[in-house]
Amino acid sequence: MSDAAKTPSGPLAGLRVLDLSRVLAGPWCTQILGDLGAEVIKIEQPGQGDDTRRWGPPFVEDGSRDAAYYLCANRNKKSVAINLADPRGAEMIRKIAIDCDIVVENFRVGGLVKYGLDHASLSQINPRLIYCSITGFGQDGPYKDRGGYDFLIQGMSGLMSVTGRPDDQPGGGPLKVGIPISDLVTGLYAATSILAALAHRDRTGEGQRIDMALLDTQVALLANQASNYLNGGMLPRRLGNEHPNTVPYQDFACADGDILVALGNDRQFRDFCKLIGRPDLPDDPRFAVNGGRSPHRQALQDEMQPAIARWKSDDLIAAMEAAKLPGGRVNDIPHILADPQIAARGLVRDMTRSDGTPVKILGYPGKLSKTPADYRHAPPRSGEDTREVLMTLLNIDGAELTALMEADVIAERLR
Q1: Alpha helices in 77-170 (DSSP H)
Q2: 210/17 Cα distance (integer angstroms)
Q3: Is 288 in contact with 256 (CB distance < 8 Å)?
């Protein structure tokens, strides 16, 4: 059975999502809904498709030449190429929305009004619709009309002010996170909010609008750093690999490389000091409890580093594991993807595109005992489901499809 022929089996099976989003935050959200069983219809611009199809190299070496980036956020979807700027295309999308449960879009504020695809328009024809808008700064406020991009949001939100090494160290200065964290977490929050809206609809029968902003999401993720400032007046700063509150919680140099030490309480600190041959350190009143270790972190590091440097990294990690102390090493991506723990968890999965091209994806991380995620439809080529969806949902016949294609209102890619 091909990936595309599999029937949804997850907890959201029976729900239909109209995906008007592109790039990452929106597609990440809709991929989660698809993994959990929803039917996701991804609308793409004919001849162009999702921007990320061109965000390479690397590219998939098949007829599509889709970028590997695109593959990360678009499985379990059907691709329908409709020109929404054409009134006939917009009308088709409105008709599809009548039979959908969820719409996800990431156009600029007000950008879908002229097509009749905004929340006000679609909720009139489908009051049960859950309509999620994802923008950089939200539907209101002084920045609402600005475009939002992950890199900008990481900087504007304050995240980069606490990421990287201190200014007085080599390589110091603000850094972005190595993945588009603001986009990804906004997609996660959007999916969570949609599930909450579904629960509300189950009780009341009414849909609602969800307003998601990248800046809001990233500021909410400041978590302990923001709380340290709001409730304690502590000004967050860049600490490299150190923790702002818990010490020691950082990297240390062994004889043959660095390891990570993540000690979360005073007992673990005492056990670790004994392990490395410095059982006297907890007797120092500066270091006895975490509240003292944090303001005296440099003095503690100066005491611990020579003892740790005598160890080989594998030996110390093994000794920490035997003592049930949290530690490890920094893996590169090839190493972690080949790690036996990741293999045991089945996170790397093989799928097959409609033309037979094999691709690898990272699966949904949650393990649901009764309704697990499924993987039934590899990331589609642009427009490959146009004919099937329009014939099935809108009862458009072959002759009309041909006329619409000749008028560049829709497009399809032959399998």
Answers
A1: 87-98, 119-125, 150-156
A2: 14
A3: no
Instruction: Determine the 3-state secondary structure of 249 from DSSP.
Output: strand
Structure tokens at 58: 């690397």
Residue 75 has pLDDT above 60, yes or no: yes
**Across-strand partners of 103?**
18, 131
Q: Per-residue pLDDT for 246 more than 70?
A: yes
CA distance linking residue 107 with residue 399, whole number of Å: 32
Query: What is the spatial distance between Cα 317 and Cα 260, in angstroms, rounded to a whole number?
Result: 9
What is the 3 state secondary structure string of 191-203? Answer: HHHHHHHHHHHHH
Instruction: Please tell me the pTM assigned to this model.
Output: 0.92
Distance CA(30)–CA(80), nearest Å, equals 15
- How far does Cα 230 stand from its chain's mean position? 27
Q: Which amino acid is at 345?
A: R
Q: Which residues form the catalytic set? A: 183
pLDDT at 383 over 70: yes
* β-bridge mates for residue 211, sequence order: 133
CA distance 36 to 38: 6
Say how far apart CA 117 and CA 266 lie, in whole Å. 57
Residues 35 and 120: beta-carbon distance below 8 Å: no
Q: Contact, 73 vs 27, CB < 8 A?
A: yes
Q: 389: burial class by Cβ within 10 Å (0-12, 13-18, 19+)?
A: buried
Gyration radius of the chain's alpha carbons: 26
Give the CB-side neighbour count of residue 8, counting CA atoms within 13 A: 19
Pairwise CA distance, residues 345 & 365, whole Å: 9
List domains and CATH numbers for the chain: 3-220+339-411 (3.40.50.10540), 249-331 (3.30.1540.10)
**Amino acid letter at 155?**
G
pLDDT digits (tens, 9 = 90+) for 6-16: 788 899 999 99
Token pair belonging to 69: 């980036």
- Give the Cα separation of 152 and 159 in Å (integer): 10
